[in-house]
Amino acid sequence: MTASPSALLDDDRARGVFRVARRAFTDPVILARERAAIFDQCWLYLGHESEIEKPGDYLTRKVAGRDIIFTRGKDGAVRAFFNTCPHRGALVCREAAGNGAMFRCFYHSWAFDLEGKLVNRPGDEAYGEGTRKGGMHDLVRVPRLEQYRGLYFVHYQAAGDDLKTYLGGALEYIDLVLDQSETAMEIVGGTQAYGFDANWKLLCENSFDGYHGLPTHVSYFDYVKSKPGSLVEVAIKGRAFDLGNGHAVVQYTAPWGRPVAQTVPAWGEEAAREVAAIKARLVARFGAERAERMATTNRNLLIFPNFVINDIMAVTFRTFYPQAPDKQEVNAWALAPREESPAMRELRLFNFLEFLGPGGFATPDDCEALALCQRGYGSLAGAGWNDISKGYLSDEPQVDDEAQMRAFWREWHRRVSEQPA
Amino acid sequence: MSASVTRGELEDFLFLEAALLDNWQLDEWLALFVEGARYFIPPAGADDDADPATSLFYVADDYHRLCERVKRLKKRTAHAEFPRSRCRRMVSNVRLLGGADERFKVTSNFVTWRSKLGVTNTFFGHHLYEMTRIDGQLRILSKKTFLDQDDIREQGKVSIIP
Ligand code: FES
Ligand SMILES: [Fe+2]
Description:
The structure holds two protein chains of two kinds.
Chain A: E1 9-12, E2 17-21, H1 28-39, E3 44-48, E4 57-63, E5 66-72, E6 78-82, E7 97-99, E8 102-104, E9 111-113, E10 118-120, E11 144-148, E12 151-155, H2 163-167, H3 171-178, E13 185-187, E14 192-196, H4 200-207, H5 213-216, H6 218-226, E15 237-244, E16 247-253, H7 269-286, H8 288-296, E17 297-303, E18 307-311, E19 315-324, E20 327-337, H9 342-355, H10 363-376, E21 385-387, H11 403-417
Antiparallel strand pairs in A: 1-2, 2-21, 3-12, 4-5, 4-7, 5-6, 8-9, 9-10, 11-12, 13-20, 14-20, 15-16, 16-17, 17-18, 18-19, 19-20
Helix pairs in contact in A: 7-8
Chain B: H1 7-22, H2 26-30, E1 33-41, E2 59-61, H3 63-73, E3 86-100, E4 103-116, E5 119-134, E6 137-147
Parallel strand pairs in B: 1-6
Antiparallel strand pairs in B: 1-2, 3-4, 4-5, 5-6
Bound molecules: FE2/S2 (inorganic) cluster and fe (ii) ion (FE2).
């Protein structure tokens, strides 16, 4: 079977061929379908409990085009509101983060408490009884906010699968990351807010693309090899898994140091003892097999559609949203066990920055690669297909195969091809 | 201004630094630092007292990593900067913030334009230096580059030395 010109996917096991039409990365009509069929219909990561730890803490963040206030009330309960005034729509909270007792919209000075209730406004007596019913002048809550072990997600539909059901097969892998702490994981040092001139799905692919690591990031490996003892004799080797619902993961061993828990000689003897103790605690808590998996394997996990958890030389969370077919906004965070020692935390952040983020030795080159892909789609009328066939016919797809991307794309395709309601 | 250094001398030094970076003379740029120097870029919009132990910087280099950053940027495998971007740096508002015993705190404002593959980005902000004098020559002990924009969504990356 050959794909028709209007098809978005060419998925043909008989030939071992899996291709995606480049139109999927350029067409505004497709982006509109994605907004309606994916971002409005999936659980989307909002933030971590450690970001709003104390009563009155809040932060503002954009999630799929909506400005959201994420806050912890005086009662300790966590809530998420659309950051838009019920009066005439102005952005109510204009700060990135803070702590307070109320939100005040400056335009006509309506004020809301941390539960979103209108508590004060000039000329209140001029409003009729009918406007006081049903909370119509309160901040509007997002239809659904649920959490799994401190990870908060929003959903813009009132009904549908709960978060745990949605996460499904990904829960096992999320647990492998969160269990690194005996107390809780926490976000360290704020948000990296950057962007790519490339379609958002290119970053989905890139975030767990084991095939590009060595060629794209050769200069990173040159650097780590420049410091004697920065790597151990471990091959990059592992598997790709389809976790259902569009979630997928690659899990693999790698030669770099991991605070939890694979030491490298360059870290020194004190760190080696500390890492050994961390690993021993993992064995005590989870048994030898699971401890080994947590300590010495890396995970690049994509929660459909756009939440990445990479448990590599450091732990990073990442989300990204399209502003246009060829433009996306990225938010990235570093995570660490709350109880981590200052020395280990320093090694972790050093590890993080040498690979990850806008000034790392790797991420800028990913950024460049994605922009070049997007640029290539200018020729889609003549050269119209991306290839994602690597390892299609393998029963045990490897970390440098592309089975994890095929899992993403099949779910993407199922959702965008459904008839609009 | 302190008697041991003049604004003229600081400006000469900082303008030379900018010219070396504009011309991609990165080894010569690195030679302006003392051995053991540190180099930082805090997250966009950070305060002057931002600390890499508690805040997620873009760059927090010890001297080894700073040297490797320079080495990497000269390779064609530093893909984001190959072919090299074209850059121009404007440096102004040079001020001596204090100093004694031949250790100076110096600040300057900057705008850097970077152009590559048809895209031009602007970085603006201020630098904070700690400098010293060795054999009569000013040298950098540490450099912090603060990007004063809200975020770097438009720039996407900090693949140059801004
Ligand atoms: S728009 Fe907020 S008070 Fe009028
Ligand atoms: Fe990469």
